[in-house]
């Protein structure tokens, strides 16, 4: 039997050429090529990067970055408040030493209470500002606890900005509301709940 024989049932069908030795066979037209053996197909690309695996966010979303900056701004405003508090307490203490006011018993009593209240308020302002700055610094490595703390901080700051510090607290209120909104959004939740095995 010969492969060239047209009557041979085991031979090469007529009209087709045998592929050359060393050359890969091509699929017939209209038939999609099959996946070869070897490496598997790559996973789909994630919009946040990280190779397409769920939760592998590698870059902080823009809204979370904005919330972080706003926390730093709130901290800076608090430090300005601390400066004014210290100056106010020192001014009251200096007024107490004024010879014309030393004989005024009512002023001395008010000044004694005011000085203590101003120092306490200054300490609270300082603590709230430090908390805002530390909270903003934790945005890079913190988890869902930092997100919840930022939400609570934003809500409390917004309320305090409305009452009792209405006039000077307006900037705090706007910034605090934006912080709460930005960390409460879905991309904020995705950032704080991301895989922490890789530090950023």
Automatic annotation (TrEMBL):
Give the transmembrane region(s): 69-95, 115-136, 148-168
* Feature: compositional bias, Low complexity: 9-38
Q: Which domain of life is it from?
A: Bacteria
Q: Where is this region: Disordered?
A: 1-38
Q: Which UniProt keywords apply?
A: Membrane, Transmembrane, Transmembrane helix
Q: What is this protein called?
A: Integral membrane protein
Q: Which organism is it from?
A: Streptomyces narbonensis
The upper taxonomy is: Bacteria, Bacillati, Actinomycetota, Actinomycetes, Kitasatosporales
